[in-house]
Q: What sequence folds into this?
């Protein structure tokens, strides 16, 4: 008849606080980290999750693959113990990642609020001290909003492009805002390289802001110098412009 067995499919998760490989636990420890430190922790967690995923791949299993034979015995062709341990670690790290992203999201909102306030303060200065950059299709160059650039530099935050404009429909909201094919997107409202989730965050920002302007920070090659030029556009999603969607452009992952 045999002895009853634990469910070998269910990973064994130890009790106590969830901790990432770098030793940062869920909860209070995250409160003391700067935005850049949180980003560094996120990168570490992502790297370990990738490595653990490779362990599962080496056994040709995933988080849901059965570890028993059709008659309920542990499979002999895989290392069941290693897979259970790996799955448990992945569960812990996924929880860590969720908490880190929540803190990063809050930090980014604070960062961009401070940048916007600095930009507003800069524009209120007398013209003699304000060096306006050239405008392009409703966009201003980064030099026209020195407050935001200085705020970003001071924080050490690097806004890596996460999307590329593949095409723009003439007469669309994207066209009117100044977007061009080839532009690389650094920020789309609250969507950044840290949280865009394969551009699903961009779609969410668009849906939530129909009829309202969204700040879009892009990088564009200067055709004369071939140097990167940063532009801040204001794009207002809207229907009824004569084409499909609310933007009239096609974005792809960078």
A:
């Amino acid at each position: 008849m045999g002895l009853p067995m634990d469910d070998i499919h269910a990973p064994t998760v130890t009790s106590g606080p969830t901790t990432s490989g770098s030793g940062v636990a869920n909860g209070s420890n995250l409160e003391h980290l700067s935005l850049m430190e949180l980003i560094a922790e996120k990168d570490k967690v992502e790297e370990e999750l990738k490595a653990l995923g490779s362990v599962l791949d080496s056994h040709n299993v995933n988080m849901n693959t059965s570890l028993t034979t059709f008659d309920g015995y542990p499979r002999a062709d895989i290392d069941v113990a290693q897979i259970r341990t790996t799955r448990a670690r992945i569960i812990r790290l996924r929880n860590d990642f969720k908490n880190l992203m929540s803190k990063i999201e809050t930090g980014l909102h604070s960062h961009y609020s401070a940048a916007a306030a600095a930009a507003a303060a800069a524009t209120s200065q007398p013209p003699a001290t304000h060096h306006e950059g050239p405008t392009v299709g409703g966009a201003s160059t980064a030099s026209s909003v020195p407050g935001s650039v200085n705020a970003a530099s001071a924080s050490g935050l690097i806004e890596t492009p996460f999307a590329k404009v593949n095409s723009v429909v003439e007469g669309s909201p994207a066209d009117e805002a100044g977007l061009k094919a080839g532009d690389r997107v650094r920020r789309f409202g609250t969507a950044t390289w840290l949280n865009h989730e394969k551009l699903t965050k961009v779609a969410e920002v668009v849906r939530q802001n129909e009829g309202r302007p969204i700040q879009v920070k892009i990088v564009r090659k200067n055709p004369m110098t071939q140097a990167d030029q940063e532009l801040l556009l204001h794009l207002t999603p809207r229907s009824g412009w004569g084409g499909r969607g609310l933007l009239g452009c096609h974005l792809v992952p960078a």
